[in-house]
DNA sequence: CCAATGATTAGGCAATTACCTAATTATATC
DNA sequence: GATATAATTAGGTAATTGCCTAATCATTGG
């Protein structure tokens, strides 16, 4: 949990997570989206991986990164439950999402 | 949002938020719960306040702090929506909370 | 006004973070 | 094996963070 919040404290790392929201990307793909050296991005990726927010898989020359879906949402949801006085906003959020069930799909 | 995540990166600050989940406390009340100098706690409190997560109110000699309830949950919920692939865990969370409605109470 | 209490501001220091370049490791291709 | 490409590791530096003590500001009460 500490590692998750440390990881999220960086704008670069949050942006990486956003990139990985919809697609798996190689380290180079990610680095090319930032004006920053590849080693720096590699470091950011390892911080995200140590936090359990992403996993990497080597295929050939490339290392692909993807999100570990459950960890981020679960960690934040758990934290909110613990620290928020009542969790009213989350409940409101819940109502909305609950209303969606049956329209979208669970997975 | 950057300030919120920066604020949450510190264990001390998260613990302060937890203390403020159920009660309003003075700066001294909070400081007494940590093995840390009052000025340091004061600094942590100002970081939380600048992030919009708490507000302070001076009454007599004392400065009382309390959570700004909506901001934390809303910020995190918004972030999860943006960055999580599908939001499945949040949906599951939702189902639970939705099931609670009618039993507990909305406020 | 003067002393006591609560809290913040100021100033300084150690540890950490974030970045860079250079070097290394691993894979693919010839 | 030699070369090119992808990625990480190593090493170094500037900026930031986190903590402390001392000093200051504000309020209460004799």
From TrEMBL, chains A, B:
Example GO molecular function: DNA-binding transcription factor activity
Coiled coil regions, renumbered to chain: none
HTH arsR-type domain boundaries: 1-87
Keywords: DNA-binding, Transcription, Transcription regulation
Top-level taxon: Bacteria
One Pfam family here: HTH_5
Name of the protein in question: HTH arsR-type domain-containing protein
Organism taxonomic ancestry: Bacteria, Pseudomonadati, Pseudomonadota, Alphaproteobacteria, Hyphomicrobiales
